[in-house]
Design goal:
By secondary structure, the chain is mostly helical. The chain has nine helices and six strands; from the N terminus they run H-H-H-H-H-H-H-E-E-E-E-H-H-E-E. The chain folds into two domains: 103 residues, no CATH class; 201 residues, Orthogonal Bundle (Cytochrome p450), CATH 1.10.630.10. Helix content is 45%, strand content 8%. The strands form three sheets. The chain has a two-stranded antiparallel ribbon. It has a two-stranded antiparallel ribbon with strand order 2-3. A hairpin with a 2-residue loop joins strand 2 and strand 3. The chain starts with a helix and ends in an 8-residue tail after the last strand. 27% of the residues are buried. GO terms for molecular function: heme binding; iron ion binding; monooxygenase activity; oxidoreductase activity, acting on paired donors, with incorporation or reduction of molecular oxygen. Its main location: membrane. It holds the Pfam family p450.
């Protein structure tokens, strides 16, 4: 994710960006007493506002440094004809005199901030949960590796173009998104009054959809708490159900015009990354059994970090 935004991002900047993105996710998902007790508003009794200002200052300084480094690289011609990253594209748009909308530096910062905060933590969390579920269900791991051997073979590393040819890999992704959605809720606003089960929802009301509960609803899913990718395979109850927001029982990215803008990338990049980890390494849990308890936050992390011992499985393969 960091390389897509700024391909030459130094290691210390990448680490700081990941740390800031993690703190943003924690703050957004934190319980705020001021939301429930009007008397406490403005007092910052939990220190959340203070922490938010601190993270904002660090993130803004980081983004400024990244942009300045990119501007120097472009002036010096140090890109060497490399493929453009997202920051290059944004700067090209800002410098285009014929552009209908003129991008400012603050616009570029805001765009990069959204990518870092909304894309990095959710992507890493999804990959972590997918791998943990596969290790907890070795039969699923064997099926995925059999599909990898059949579709990709052992002479090259799996890539994003292979994802479309791997239905079981896609089923593993869907099942993980059902059980462990990257976002717990989706937020909308009622544009006109509407009645729902006898209640009138006035126009302008904030409406929250519990994506987490929808994915575990027994009215939609048989044995909803079981990790079972086969339900999305041909003949399964979830055959034909996709996570793009067209099926109410599976909406991990929301739905409609305000659905997650990174959905298309996530549906390809996340399974491709997971597939490469499964293809190239054997994974051992140092202290079994693996703890599958969930943590707290807007993006549901594992309560305990996923600590594994990797062993090269196809170490002779060149990286793409």
């Amino acid at each position: 994710m960091m390389r897509m935004v700024a391909s030459a991002l130094p290691g210390d900047m990448a680490d700081l960006a990941r740390d800031c993105a993690k703190q943003v996710a924690e703050l957004v998902g934190a319980f705020n007493l001021e939301d429930y007790v009007a008397l406490f508003r403005g007092w910052d009794l939990q220190g959340l506002s203070r922490r938010t200002r601190g993270v904002h200052a660090r993130f803004d300084a980081l983004l400024q440094s990244i942009i300045l480094a990119k501007e120097k690289e472009r002036r010096d011609g140090a890109d060497g004809g490399k493929a453009k990253d997202l920051l290059d594209i944004l700067m090209d748009a800002a410098a285009d005199p014929a552009a209908e909308v003129k991008l400012t530096r603050d616009n570029i910062k805001a765009f990069v901030l959204v990518i870092f905060t909304a894309g990095s933590d959710t992507t890493a969390t999804s990959v972590e949960w997918m791998l943990a579920e596969l290790l907890t269900h070795p039969d699923c791991m064997r099926k995925l590796r059999a599909e990898l051997d059949a579709v990709v073979g052992r002479s090259r590393v799996v890539g994003e173009p292979d994802v479309a040819q791997m239905p079981y890999l896609q089923a593993v992704l869907k099942e993980t998104l059902r059980l462990r959605p990257p976002a717990v809720i989706a937020h909308r606003e009622a544009v006109e009054p509407i009645r729902v089960r006898g209640y009138t929802i006035p126009a302008g009301t904030s409406v929250f959809f519990n994506i987490y509960s929808i994915g575990r609803d027994a009215a939609w899913w048989e044995d909803p708490l079981e990790f079972r990718p086969e339900r999305f395979m041909p003949g399964g109850a979830g055959e034909g159900v996709d996570p793009k927001g067209q099926h109410p029982q599976l909406m991990p990215f929301g739905s409609g015009r305000r659905a997650c803008p990174g959905m298309g990338m996530a549906l390809v990049a996340v399974p491709a990354f997971l597939a490469a980890l499964v293809q190239c390494f054997d994974w051992e849990v140092p202290a079994p059994p693996l703890d599958m308890e969930e943590g707290e936050g807007l993006v549901i992390p594992r309560k305990q970090p996923l600590l594994l011992r990797p062993t090269l499985r196809l170490g002779h393969l060149p990286l793409p």
